[in-house]
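The pair is quoted verbatim as follows:
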Amino acid sequence: MRVLSSGRPVRATAFAFAFVFSLVGSAYADFTVDIPKGTACPSFNLRIQSIGEGTAKDFHDKDGNLVKSINAGRGAQLTFTNLATSVSLNLKSNGSVSKVTPNADGTSTWVITGHNVLILFPTDVPPGPTTTLYVGRVVFTVDNSTGVFTLLGTSGKSVDICAILA
C-alpha cells in the first residue's frame, strides 16, 4: 500500500515516497507491510501490521466530480516492528478523522486529526526517512502524479517511532 488514511489506500506504488496511517482503521482488509531501511526509518527495516476497519464517505458535485473524502472511526490497531531487533510498538485504535480535498493543480490536500502516523520518505518535503505518531492535527499535500508529500503543518504531540524502536 502506498498511502493510508483511515486505512483507505490512495494509490499503490513502490515504497518511494510516504505513508499515512490513521489509527482510524480501514475499509479494507487487515495488512502487513515491510518497508526497507532508509525509507521509513534510517537504520532498520520496518514492519507495519494493521488490524481493524473504519468508515469512509466520498462527496461529489452535481456533475459527479469528487469534491472531498472524509474518513472517520475508531479504527485499526497498528504494530511497528524493527526487523533487525524484533522490538515492537503497539498502538491501539484511538480514532481519527481525515479530510481529503482534490485540488485543480493535481494535488490533494489532507487534513488529519486525532491519532495518525505519518511516514515521510527521502523524496518528500521535508525529506525522510521519518515515522511519526501525531496526536493532534496534521496538514499536508500529495502530488497525485508523483506521490510526493509536502508537510504544511502540525499541531499537538508528536512521537518519533523510529527512535523508540532503535
Notes: The radius of gyration is 15 Å. The longest strand covers residues 66-82.
